[in-house]
Design goal:
The structure is a homodimer. Helices cover 35% and strands 21% of the residues of chain A. Chain A is α/β, with parallel strands linked by helices. In chain A, helix 3 packs across helix 4, helix 8 (178-201) runs antiparallel to helix 9 and helix 10 (281-300) runs antiparallel to helix 11. Chain A is globular. The two termini of chain A are 38 Å apart. Chains A, B: InterPro entries: Creatin/AminoP/Spt16_N (IPR029149), Creatinase/aminopeptidase-like (IPR036005), Creatinase_N (IPR000587), Pept_M24 (IPR000994), Peptidase_M24B (IPR050659).
Chain lengths: 399, 399
């Protein structure tokens, strides 16, 4: 993600204008990554890493980090933001005429030139001052700022305190930029490659755990971070979340996959269902019901439609098609820097779909004692509908 | 970690007694894991997962989770805590006489019997009521509770609000239980195995990136989560934190490793230094200075000594031994459920060492343009000194 412009600064400016804010302060890793276009990791909960996104899209964002992160900034090639550091960190030496690499040259330069403060709060205050907005109303991503610093910040702000901005960041992030869509496509492609390998592994005598482990290794080989690895076979195909593995695949088993990884900060989340051997009529029928609901959800997706309307259409379709008792809490969710990235296609979410939103659409059915079915794909909302980001065939795979 | 008793409940009770608290509410994944003996992951920042640790060690802890996590609870074999769930989640079917597995049986049972609430706050309130401590003072791990819920919780509590308990949890966790030490040893052993493989890979023409990737795969093969993978060769051995790789190893290069992974929730963090070929006098000497400081730090470690005293002794030793300008912000840190798990061996930390504390001891030297040196080991404080948790030879490795 180095120095790619990720954030939709004009969309952010419009939201800040609407709420009367001069800037947004990102505190969670995802909102920091969005603001600066690169991921920065904290070592523990006390370590504070912030990014400030000014309303004016012409102003550069600011990064507030511990001094020791300057080397990481240099290695990642982050150059689109102004830096403010806090806390001591000692590195000796000089590099003139000595063995170096471009990241060391830059690190050395940053160590000499970056303004340094005693505390994260002082560094943040300096950033706001430098941006010319100290004392003006700001939004603060409230989820990952230490509460004592949050209180202190409140004293800098007009009465009423900070505007809690985690949800606002997610609204801004809701419509993806071209750079983000490119990253989501990369993550999805890696995930689908791995998922195809997993389907090919299905055979009698293979343990769920071996398939799950193959997924994790495939993700790491592809430079991604594997997360939820739902590989459920036989009776365990009916389990929605799977974090442990107990079943050895036998002929006739359904195998349900729901696989998540993060690549370059962006998530992929794709699901498929397979069967070892010939599916039973019940399996074939229920896959068909789920697929029909999933197709109905996709039919609905276009700008102007409410998330809850997509839900309603998919739900009633599955009920009419063949599962009258079908219930579901959602039939999909936004995906991006977070796995659940904001809106959900659910009865209570009346958000209106916009062009550029990226959604995972899934209409799974879980029946304990019988089996589970999943098709989950990722789509981007276009001017008059949607475009697939995932491309694997949507069928009941047979091995 | 399933159902191993991890927490030191009597130590926790003593700290709660001292602060007049009836319970502690864990909100960060680490403090939740400590309280219940198992890790539970949240999907995003809005998802709230809490664990309540009552002061009375005879009372079971409580877990507050979204309903969909019940399957994970069943799969992990978590049975030492009472469950309170919130939010809708639909799974159909019955299991009587149908294909199942023990985790499905348990999941089904939990779905029928677990008290369910509309919101995480209502579930938390029910847990406090059930424990008979609603309205009594409690400590709240303030780092990972959504601020709106934190405010609401304050209304339940005596005036003065919640006692911020993140630091208190870390103090309690500071002295590890036998079960925790066993887990830290497992993590360290895996990390050392990987580090040995990495040292063996050092050869002319090998890229840092290939060594780093080998580490990540070795961690995943060992069921661990790889984190900071500092593999810096040649000039890049002088970089403290390494998150990107640019150098191909050449004869004479120092290669500095600082490797972190998490296994079963517990961290390992080990460092070694190697050289390709014969070390120069400068390399040999500087490794010796660092090693002498590191040995001095270890000499100091025993119950009753202050963290800052260990720091001072190591620092002055390195300065006298051969690097008069030697500076350092710390010479080690507690390790456990967090990589930086509480105290640091630093000038400002006057915590007194206690038996059962687990510390990483490191006295690195970074000189840009010249090279970097690291020995980092993990030790547990014993009655009259310490015992190593890491076992690799502490020498300047030669390949």
């Amino acid at each position: 993600m180095s120095d790619v412009v990720i954030a939709n600064r004009s969309r952010a400016a419009a939201y800040m204008e609407r709420h009367g804010l001069a800037a947004l302060i990102a505190t969670t890793p995802e909102n920091v990554a969005y603001t600066i276009g690169s991921q920065l990791r904290a070592t523990n909960w006390t370590m504070q890493i912030y990014a400030v996104m000014p309303k004016n899209p012409e102003q550069r964002p600011c990064i507030i980090i511990p001094t020791n992160r300057l080397g990481v900034i240099a290695q990642m090639g982050i150059s689109g933001a102004d830096l403010y550091v806090y806390s001591d960190f000692f590195v000796e030496g000089s590099i003139a005429g000595k063995p170096s690499t471009p990241d060391i040259d830059l690190f050395y330069d940053l160590l000499q030139t970056t303004p340094s403060y005693a505390t994260p709060f002082a560094a943040l205050e300096a950033a706001l001052t430098q941006l010319g907005i100290k004392g003006q109303p700001v939004g603060v991503d409230e989820m990952r700022m230490a509460p004592d610093i949050y209180s202190k910040l409140t004293e800098l702000l007009p009465s009423g305190g900070a505007f809690p901005a985690y949800a606002l960041f997610r609204q801004i992030r809701g419509v993806k930029t071209e750079a983000e869509i490119a990253l989501l496509k990369k993550a999805a492609a890696l995930n689908e490659q791995a998922e195809s390998e997993l389907i090919a592994m299905i055979a009698a005598g293979v343990h769920e755990a071996d398939i799950a482990q193959h997924y994790r290794l495939a993700a790491v080989k592809g430079k991604a971070v594997p997360a939820m690895t739902a590989v459920g076979a036989g009776p365990r195909s009916a389990l929605p979340l799977i974090e442990n593995y107990f079943h050895t695949i036998a002929p006739g088993d359904l195998v349900r996959f729901d696989l998540c990884l993060q690549l370059g900060g962006y998530w992929a989340d794709t699901g498929r269902t397979a069967v070892l051997g010939e599916p039973t009529e019940w399996q074939r029928n229920h896959f068909h019901y789920v697929k029909t609901g999933w197709e109905r959800a996709l039919d609905m997706i276009r700008p102007g439609v409410k998330a809850s309307e997509v839900f309603e259409a998919a739900l009633t379709t599955v009920q009419k098609e063949g599962i009258p008792h079908y219930r579901r809490q959602h039939v999909g969710h936004a995906i991006g820097l977070e796995l659940y990235d904001g809106i959900t296609l659910s009865p209570g979410d009346h958000s209106v779909l916009e062009k550029g939103m990226v959604l995972c659409v899934e209409v799974p059915y879980y029946e304990l004692g019988a089996g589970g079915f999943q098709i989950e794909d990722t789509v981007v909302v276009t001017e008059d509908g949607f475009e697939f980001i995932t491309h694997m065939e949507r069928r009941l795979y047979q091995q």
